[in-house]
């Protein structure tokens, strides 16, 4: 059904606003799903978890297409690395999307919280990390490591997704990329994971097309602005924004796990 459930215009407006915000965050450091997915869960309480995940993927895929194109034109990441990484991310996400039909969302919040705390602490305690690209591995070893990153994080993205972009960024920074170069490669891998998940979800009829397309337009706007800002401001801006976003997500997810937000 193209329209999906009947949603009041005021609720649709808030969902689009959440999508604009998510698109901006996603294009700079990733993690926009941690804004967009909860917005869908709150706004559409009668919709199944798989439909929420699928609709979120549609909106995210539209936004990440724009940010990926912007990064590719302006940063020029190496296709010998991001190509194989995208293929493995696609495979991992497709497998994860199949698993998503069986795993409850609540099982992931504590895991995501622990990983975000560790990631944020690592970036804060190592201020020099991600300033410039100085690859720790070369040639085939580097490509293999990037492919493994794509496969593992792609699987997670297919199963649930929130925070995927941030996890991709920090994994690539740990391989020696600057935050800007890591964001460029992460957007390309994230595009592959979103498309892979939709390949599984669309034939199942899980996408709410009306809601997803409207949110996708909002995501596109946020992604375009965010990607251009990140490229113009450089790695220092991306790093600072990354720390701020991770801190905000730790507070929000921590509150969910502890029951602070009810």
Automatic annotation (TrEMBL):
The keyword Lyase does not apply. Pfam families: TauE. Keywords: Cell membrane, Membrane, Transmembrane, Transmembrane helix, Transport. It is a multi-pass membrane protein. InterPro entries: TM_pro_TauE-like (IPR002781), TSUP (IPR052017). The chain crosses the membrane at residues 33-54, 81-101, 107-125, 146-175, 195-225, 237-255. The keyword Acyltransferase does not apply. Belongs to the 4-toluene sulfonate uptake permease (TSUP) (TC 2.A.102) family. PANTHER family: MEMBRANE TRANSPORTER PROTEIN YFCA-RELATED, TRANSMEMBRANE PROTEIN YFCA. This is Probable membrane transporter protein. It comes from Nocardioides lentus.
């Amino acid at each position: 059904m193209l329209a999906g459930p009947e949603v009041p215009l005021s609720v649709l407006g808030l969902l689009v606003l959440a999508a604009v915000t998510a698109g901006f965050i996603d294009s700079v450091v990733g993690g926009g799903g941690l804004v967009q997915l909860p917005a869908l869960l709150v706004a559409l309480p009668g919709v199944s978890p798989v439909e929420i995940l699928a609709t979120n993927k549609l909106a995210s895929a539209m936004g990440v297409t724009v940010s990926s194109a912007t990064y590719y034109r302006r940063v020029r990441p190496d296709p010998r690395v991001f190509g194989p990484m995208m293929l493995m991310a696609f495979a991992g996400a497709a497998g994860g999307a199949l698993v998503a039909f069986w795993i409850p969302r609540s099982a992931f919040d504590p895991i995501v919280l622990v990983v975000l705390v560790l990631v944020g602490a690592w970036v804060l305690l190592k201020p020099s990390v991600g300033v410039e690209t100085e690859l720790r591995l070369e040639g085939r070893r580097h490509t293999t490591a990037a492919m493994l990153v794509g496969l593992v994080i792609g699987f997670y993205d297919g199963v649930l997704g929130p925070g995927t972009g941030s996890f991709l960024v920090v994994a690539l920074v740990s391989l020696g990329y600057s935050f800007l170069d890591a964001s460029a490669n992460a957007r390309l891998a994230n595009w592959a994971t979103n498309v892979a998940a939709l390949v599984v979800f669309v034939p199942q009829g899980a996408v709410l097309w009306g809601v997803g397309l409207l949110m996708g337009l909002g995501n596109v706007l946020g992604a375009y602005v965010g990607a251009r800002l990140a490229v113009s401001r450089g790695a220092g801006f991306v790093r600072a924004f990354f720390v701020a976003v991770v801190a905000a997500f730790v507070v929000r997810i921590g509150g969910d796990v502890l029951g602070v937000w009810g």
